[in-house]
Amino acid sequence: MKYAEEFRDPKAAKGLLAQIAQVIDELGATKEKPVHIMEICGGHTHAIFRYGLDKLTPAGLEFIHGPGCPVCVLPMSRVDECVELAERPEVIFTTFGDAMRVPGTKKSLLQAKAEGADIRMVYSPLDALELARRNPDREVVFFGLGFETTTPSTALSIQQAASEELANFSVFCNHITVPPPIKALLDDPHMILDGFVGPGHVSMVIGVEPYRFIARDYGKPIVVAGFEPIDLLQSVLMVLEQMRDGRAEVENQYSRVVPDYGNPVSIAACDDVYEPRPTFEWRGLGEIDSSGLRIREKYVAFDAEAKFSIGYGKGAPRFVPEPEGCACGDVMTGRLKPVQCQQFGKGCTPEMPLGALMVSSEGACAAYYEYGGVDLEPAE
Amino acid sequence: MNQPMRRMKSDTVTLAHGGGGKAMRDLIEDVFVSVFEPDGMEDQARLTNGALASSGAQLAFTTDGFVVSPLEFPGGDIGKIAVCGTVNDLAVGGAEPLWLSAAFIIEEGVDVALLRRVVASMREAADEANVRIVTGDTKVVERGSADGIFITTSGVGVIPPDRNLSANRVQPGDVAIVNGVLGDHGAAILAARGDMALSVEIPSDCQPLNALMNATCETVDVRAARDATRGGLASALNEIAEAAGCGIEIEETALPLRTEVKGVCEILGLDPLYLANEGTLVLFVPEEEAERALDAMRSTAAGKEAVIIGRATTAHPKRVVMQTTFGGARIVDMLVGEQLPRIC
Predict the structure, then answer these.
(1) How many distinct helices (H) and strands (E) make up chain A?
(2) pLDDT digits (tens, 9 = 90+) for B135-153
């Protein structure tokens, strides 16, 4: 398969792994005193485990799995509000597939669907728009979820609904942005981080400029990376080389997809439709300033929170504490490895997730469970 | 095909067609009986077969419900799956399938023309598999109580005296063989649902596997076989590893996959190991018989692309592990829930 298999070439990987091992040596990093690199994006976490990169790289390198799985960081109160919306008889609730299994306080969307709520899985907000056109006597609510990758398509659907005056379409907006949680993590005194592998698809939209503060204000290297194993290994090498050379820069490994200044059409659509919320809750991380997006006043007719008086629409969402024994927060900040959590594989499995990181295949715990459940003999 | 004595008078199925009266008789005679041609019109089929008389022969009996959406898709329809699925469930146990029943639950409003196409394709698949549909049932339910047509088929077959296929007979060293490409059915259904506007047409692999199983069982000692339906190859291999108590190792580079299927999986974030198949099986044979098994499989229509994908091993008992193209190893676990497309 073109444009995929070239980036999975074992020979190229071998060369990169040897170079990584050499720079790790030059940095004097060891298993006891490793270099900590955070991959921010859940897609990267998944790829690291799928290709066993954590096992192939030297012991002196440790991956810290960042907060970049939008399904995982969604607070439970918001899932409860989704269920509440979906259970209204007039509502057709539309969502991306992998949000269906996220547990709420009482139930997930999948359970609500089984109990009779009209919940439809869609692949794009434009599918939700089409449902609204075909069902003028129903209220179609789209569950807007995700980072800058999915934010523009939701914005475009709102603009489209406005131009068609589609009164029965609205968005339950839970879109979040990448830079604020990185800043929050860097400000956390417990956090030990030496550099970042930056998210590829998010950067395709926002470009690399929004990461400048990481290098400038915190002196940490960041390399925006693609999603194939060769992309990831090359990006890790670039971060390590910056460290060795005493540099802290924003570099772009994924230049075949990511333009430095992003996608201006997407950025303009987002600016038109959204503004930052003063604060937004992240599961496992707590409230983070300016990290969520809300729909601007001029599109309030398409804002499900205002329309149905729910969540921030009626003040503030209810705070729901994590279930007892759940250590997702510690795992997300790198203080615990997934397997070190007391509940891992016992009270918390992909079948019955207790915490957020076990829910989506992009969550660190689910990826560990799926691909690393037992120790394997190394491959030849 | 028989000329039906009665003709359906309407273009769509209505509740009257399930009411037990004249309309139902018309439907049964015109749409089902004239195509399936059962021996009589008693309430039960009365069957005799010489194979049953051999000493040590076993009767095999299975049932399966079919609810696929859309009802028609490239490479097949619900009728073809309903026949092939039950035939294959019998075949992978070593049985030679003989007779099927077919029970239809039809949503009112279904086009009679669609129903006729489905029934014709059942007959065609039954002829291909050399089995007969000998009895059946029809119910019509209100709109919204079913999705078009649901079909349940049951099947009876005979296992010859010398055959003993069972997952717990698989031993370390045994070789795992698949008969053809993986994931075509799952990818075909995803593409045919039209949710994603994928400009690719992948035909389902839906086909009967009894001729292939028979040819292979006649040639070598097949320890066990599974058709890789829902849950895909991953689930079939996990079932065998669990029952046999040994590990199974497969090679990613050996897995036969169409480029189109790989592409669909890349775009949607799905794993082809978990995609459903309707005409693909995996079987285990002793290593020294692997070449003869491959020859036997390749001599049949359903086995032309048969290939070795891995083996049973003493390492990692009850676990399926894949050596990846990339040089790593990863666990291939049972599917959790349904495979849901990722969002980013």
Answers:
(1) 15, 13
(2) 999 999 999 999 999 999 9
